[in-house]
Specification:
Length: about 80
């Protein structure tokens, strides 16, 4: 099995044409990152993999997936409404 296969589909390799978005907090740190497999995915499509980064005293202390999954099933525009744990 290829190291890039999950659920029988290639899910990611950061340099293989994924659509990418980032959102920054007030300290100009990356707070959210998102990837969509389909380069034509709209930001409100349920086609995004989203991770939230948490910082303490300007140090990255946690990175958690939306809804505790790295599947491409979220909406970038709704990123603030998901649970990250």
């Amino acid at each position: 099995m290829s190291p890039f296969l999950r659920n029988e589909q290639q899910v990611y390799s950061r340099n293989q044409g994924l659509k990418y978005r980032a959102s920054f907090n007030a300290s100009n740190q990356v707070e959210y990152e998102g990837w969509a497999v389909n380069n034509s995915a709209a930001e409100d499509d349920l086609a995004w993999q989203i991770i939230k980064h948490t910082y303490t005293s300007d140090n990255l202390t946690a990175s958690n997936w939306a809804s505790n999954t790295d599947d491409f099933v979220h909406s970038w525009t709704l990123k603030g409404g998901y649970t990250y744990a």
